Amino acid sequence: MSTAGPAVAAASERPTARSASVGPTPAALNPTALQQAISSAPDRVTAVLARVSGPAGHWMGTFGTADVNTQEPVSPEGRFRLGSVTKMFISTVVLQLAAEQRVDLDRPVQEYLPGVLPGDYPPVPLSELVAKAVRHPRLFEPGAMQHYGATGYYVAAMLVEKLTGHSYQREITDRIVRPLNLRHTTAPETDPTIPGPHAHGYITVPQPCDGSCLKDITEQNPGAGGMISTTADLDRFMTALFRGRLLSPTQLDQMLTIPHVRNLDGSEHDPGHGWAYYGAGPMRVTVGGVTVWGKTGSTFGYTDGMFVTPDLRRRLVYSFNPTTGGGNDLALVNQILSAAFSPPATS
Q1: Correct CATH for 31-341 of 3.30.1490.100, 2.60.40.1180, 3.50.50.60, 3.40.710.10
Q2: What are the backbone angles phi and psi of residue 302, rounded to the nearest 5°?
Q3: For the whole model, what pTM was predicted?
Q4: DSSP assignment letter at 53
């Protein structure tokens, strides 16, 4: 479930926690630039789909093939695996539980999950992942720096299960998927398939004679980042989130608050310019001076992302299928983001 943020220009100032200002307004919708952006995908990407929405209009585009054997075209309504975008749903549920006063986020998680950090929690998949992570020495004192990783979200998912008595997948379904009528979004617990139309996921494997070939890895254990959705459903989710349908103003503000700390792995070339750029789930990115919030995700065969301006005037959701394993193709991500959000050119 590794993710990486898009590259942006360096800045000299330390960023503030949350900024209501969106900076320049994105340029008028440019279908030609958007199609060129997704069509710039390298050969190691088999399929791309993207959706841009907002008051200026809507655009949907595809590139590549959904099935390299049948040459089936990519469906604009195709489903895909979310990887770390699942974390946005987990974070929303945790903040809802906080609003219901079922958890105090200022108290140590050990009070709710005794023993989870030492690694002696009962052997279930999430806790096994946490146990492996906490065997390593701590890199910094809690609260001193920001470091993006999956372990905290595994703990958050376990917290949801402890507080509700249900799987975190069920809570996501009951609290978000069904109320928002996300008809093509699922949070499977064990089903390895992708229902409905979808582009296949592949990985390049070495072959002794022909050099290499593509192995179909569409069916996977859903794991901790195993949600499945579409560009339309993710657009609906982000719209509902920023319009306050899922969280109160207090909880939404908490979600979008970025701590005033350095990023452990940061540099002048990342979205935070060396400082933290993640809130409680989403990341803040500046594209040509335009501030957007969103999340990227990746699992084997699938990479995706969703980004919106805070006023929802421009919204982007994309997915593509790399054959090189997990991780983002940053050049492609940056081109899609720039085509969607860059402000008008000045004369």
Answers
A1: 3.40.710.10
A2: -140, 135
A3: 0.88
A4: E
